[in-house]
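Obj: model holo form, ligand = S-adenosyl-L-homocysteine.
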Amino acid sequence: MADEARQTMTKFWEEHSRDATLEEMMLDSSAKLLSKEEKPEIISLLPSLDGLSVLELGAGIGRYTGHLSKLASHVTAVDFMQKFIDKNREDNGYRGNITFLQADVTQLEQPSESFDFVFSNWLFMYLTDEELVTLIQKMMSWLKPGGYLFFRESCFYQSGDSERTFNPTFYRTPAQYNHLITSVTSTSGNNGFEIVMSKSVQTYIKIKKNQNQVCWLLQMVPRVPDAHQGYGTFQQFLDNQQYSRRGILRYEKIFGEGFVSTGGLETTKEFISMLNLLPGQRVIDVGCGIGGGDFYMAKMYGVEVLGMDLSSNMVEIAMERAIKEKTPLVQFEIGDATRRIFPEASFDVVYSRDTILHINDKGALFKRFFSWLKPGGKLLITDYCCGERPWSPLFQEYVKQRGYILYTPKEYGQFLEQVGFVNVQAQDRTEQFVQVLNTELKRTHEIKEEFLQGFSEEDYNYIIDGWKEKLHRCSLGDQRWGLFYAEKPLDAIL
Ligand code: SAH
Ligand code: SAH
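Output (holo structure tokens):
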């Protein structure tokens, strides 16, 4: 089977590399238009290439080799079709920092820890599961710790013209790619891949109404034993523990449609009004959940919103909702706020609701927010906080079990000031929190019958008891809720 796949693939690409053209490369007759828009989009998602040693797999005629070699210190461009390699050398060879290598990636060997970045655009879809698993393992050894892997694939169906004849591609769903990667990286070695970002290529959505061009950026990080309560990655912890699909939908019942945070639409309206949003402004929602706040902002204020969340279950539901909402102003992506890379001054507003409780190093995170914001940009956060220590044993146990990292509202505000934010407001909103909890409890009692149509009695009790426990922890003075507003100074130096 494996050899047969190899032969079919080789034959396919031999037939499609005769002219070494852009159209062959993209298997699409509108290649020029697509490539012109797509290339900058893909490039904007890459980490800084400055001084890096790059391995490009399935480089083809070098659509990306030119850009990579312009910034990186060295690029090794691999393809198994000599015709493509020749064309790539002809166009880009003059730069002098590229090694052109004719090789089948399934046979490729490289020294360990010899690359900072592996880039591949449309290659994994031409490999069987077994070949891909082996390649991922090899890439983990070729990469230096902290190094990145970027890849982009056609998922579900092909990106090009549908009338093209035989195209022996393995169309996987994005979830299948995620699964393949986590299965390899959570079982082997001292390092593993953590997801930085995964999203659909917007150019294909815009020009071809095709959502199934998906890319990933992963980072190789040392694995800390037991860092994620028994799960291989933090994403798996979120997706399997607190934010399973059922868990999310159960939460939504009490928070209100579209929301997994305190007060649902009501607090959202109140806090967003503090931002004086203007049409065309760009907002990032960090830990966007299932996107209720994002649809609201886009529809109410005409802002462009990027909803980012590390939980793939959350983003999946958000994308399902987006189809119904039909708001082209809202985009969603899987992204880890602690690793995601954006150019400086990308956003007018950073918005985050009841999310940062999951993130350990608040100072480092706020530094990132500061850099993502334009000068004069605004930050709005609500988050779970705590009272002064010592805490009751009950609260200690709750925080430990959830894996939350909590500070007092005052400490939280200090983190923001230390990073350079000005006009910082750090408000203890526990009183409002308690009011909201009571309202949510009451409403959930009232809709018990409806609740039980979609969920079990056990689910219902879980929610009701959970809310009563929250109220109890508040009454002890341990659990608190904070609202934070801050601005990046207008004269901040970029
Ligand atoms: N990355 C380029 C080319 C994409 S087309 C671009 O975005 O324009 C896929 C490329 O992968 C082709 O050039 C094909 O020759 C190459 N390829 C497919 N299977 C391969 C394998 N097993 N080893 C090396 N190259 C392969
Ligand atoms: N803000 C949403 C969801 C709140 S639930 C709302 O108001 O409805 C908290 C969210 O934080 C979860 O969806 C969780 O997946 C997300 N999250 C936790 N750690 C994250 C990280 N490092 N990067 C991005 N999102 C994260």
